[in-house]
Each structure stands twice: as C-alpha cells, then as structure tokens.
Predict the 3D structure of the following.
Amino acid sequence: MILFPAVLASTLIQSAMAQLPTLDEPPWLGYFAAHENLRFRFGITSLGQMILTPVGSKGPVSEEVAIKIDPTILETEPGGKVTAKRLIPESLETADSATAEFEKTVFRGKVTGEKSFEVTVELSRGFILIGGRILDPGQNRNPLQFTISADIPNLYRNSEPKDEGDGDGDDTRDAERELKRKEKEFMKKLRADRISLKWTDGKQLRHDLTETVDVKSKEVNGPGIAELELETGSFAGRKVQFTASPHSVMTLSDAELSPLYKGFKVVWTADPAKDPDGKARLAIGVR
C-alpha cells in the first residue's frame, strides 16, 4: 500500500492545525483512521475528510479518481440562499485513538459561526456507514442541515481528448481529423459507463456518463434519490453504490452543465424532524 503523494503533502502541511490524532507509519501517514480490503481503500484524514478509492486486480485506482467525502453544515439565509459553512480544522476532536484497523469512530468539529456537529463512521458487512448531526446551532438561528457530500471527480481527466493544434491550412485540418478520431475512440471507451438511480418513490432511471444533464434538476433528482450506482471503467471493474437509509435522501449537485463523466456531487441529508438523534446513515459499498 502506498499513500498518495498529493494527499500526503496536503495532510502533512495542514496537520499542525488539525486535532484528530494521526497514524505515524506508512502507508497511512497523516490519517486518523483507515481500512483496506480487496475492493476498496478508505481513510479519514486528520482534517476530517474521508477518501474512498476502489481497488482493482492491480491495486488501488489512480488518486485522480478517488472519491472525497466531506461533512458540512448548510445554512439557509432569509432570502433563500444556501451556503456551505467552512470547517474549522483546529476544532476537530475525538475520544478515539488513531487506527489502521478502523471499525467505528466518532469525531466532532465546528464550522464558521460556532456551529458544531458530530460525525459517526463505521464499517458493517463490507459497507461504509456515515451519519451525523448538528450539536449546537450557535447564535445564528437560520435553518441548518447536516450533510455529507461525496465529490465524484472528472473520471477521465488525463485521457480526455484535447484540441492541441495551433497551425493553419492542411495542418489545421489534419489536427481536426485527428481530434475527431480521438473523440470517437474516447466515446467508445465510455460506452459502458453509467449512473443508475432509484428515487424515494421507487422510480428507476439511468444515464450514460457521456450525457450532458442538469444534475440539479427535478428530472434527475425527482423527490429525492434513495439508491445510486456508479459504473465506470475508471474504477477498474468496480461499481460504487450509495444508499440512503430511511429518513434520509440524496440529491445530485454540480456547479456547471457538462457531461456526467466530468464529475458531480452526491449530497446526502437526513430529515432532522424524523431523525433527531442522527441515526440515519449514508451507506457506501464497492463491488
């Protein structure tokens, strides 16, 4: 096992600010809790970020396609604007010790405005279960929601065809033909990549990752997503599944309209009225 260099560098630079204890031996330097099996590698950094990496027959896939999972608090302002509050790294704390044999842990932290939250993460029957709740809303009484956001990155960042031609005349036409050929080959590479969704009302739908869809739209999210499966060649034959337990739901989000393979976010929230004790969970599995 090898700790990804970018993750290591980022973690070590900021670890002095973080309060979660860290492991001090490879391959988990800078991590608070970790687990690896034949299907996935999962770790919680000292900054409270969770990183999920599918593992194929040749080992973990590239760090470029690792899924980064973050807890946060959303605040709805009087005008309806929703903002994600920034985590304060030095506020993180836990009663648990750092471990590379992670089974269950609880950690707490604060976001701007002195709003505090608690996160529970555990492994059960091959699934990663993540949940949490707001402990103290701080002085601001605007509506708040505890959320878990899984960032699906651009799954083909390094292999997507790019127009690199800057010539003229015949050179330009040759470059255009070559780009079209590469784009055709690229699309063939993605022909089995898809996202399958099951809404909370039972309706199922599927989108190819080459599609450009508005992931924030009702046509994609419906009344909320209960189950999601992501299948892509970038995961070395693995599929990643997300399931929202009762009293919770998922929605998709993204900053811009683009093909699905370029990335999007899976945002999980629980209904605080039906789940006041924070028992709801986002279950993530890799098969």
Q: What stands out?
A: Residues 1-18 have pLDDT under 50 and may be disordered. The two ends are 20 Å apart (CA to CA). Residues 168 and 182 are 20 Å apart (CA to CA). The chain has three helices and 18 strands.
